[in-house]
Amino acid sequence: MNAIFVFAFAFAAPKIAGPIAGGAAVFGLLFSSQFLRDISELRPVVLAMALSVVGMWAIVNKKNWLAGTIALIYGMTHLSGYMMIMMAIMVMHWSTLGFVCAGWLLSFLIHPNFPHNIYYFYLNGLLVPWYAAKTGVLELGAEFFPIDTQQLLNC
After folding, report:
1. Are 101 and 85 in contact (CB under 8 A)?
2. For residues 100 and 96, what is the distance between their CA atoms, to the nearest angstrom?
3. What secondary structure letter does DSSP report for 80?
4. What is the pTM of this model?
């Protein structure tokens, strides 16, 4: 999964931001302590990051069916699948937004945990961010307090 994400990012970043900015983003990613920390864990967040990058590329290039399919897969694999909708809104591609919304909503309906997955989205996708914004505290296993590269290498 980690290699898939790095290759997806290296593919999409230059196409989204241009060759110089995209290359700098790839270089910065590989030297980011947060990235190194995140990919060192066996969690679906790495797949979610890869789907985000490829999904953003599909949205920017108005690949409607691909964006909708990625939204479907993203919604089936990770709670943050709604970020595809946010991406489509930010770039204001309204036709692509329809495909992304359809893919994300379909992911809820065909998910093996339906209808309980809607409740989990409500708890973790809405209440947790609301609580974090309201109180300013969110320590879910210290996820937002990453170790730096030196600490990672000394483990």
Report:
1. yes
2. 6
3. G
4. 0.68
CB burial of 96-129 (b: ≥16 within 10 Å; e: otherwise) equals: bbebbbebbebbbeebeeeeebeeebeeeeeeee
146 cis-preceded (ω within 30 degrees of 0): no
Place of tokens 């196409």: 15
Read off the pLDDT of residues 82-104 as tens digits, 9 standing for 90 and up: 889 999 999 988 999 999 999 99
Tokens of 80: 């943050």
Q: Are 43 and 62 in contact (CB under 8 A)?
A: no
DSSP symbols for 111-142: STTTTHHHHHIIIIIIIHHHHHHHHS---STT
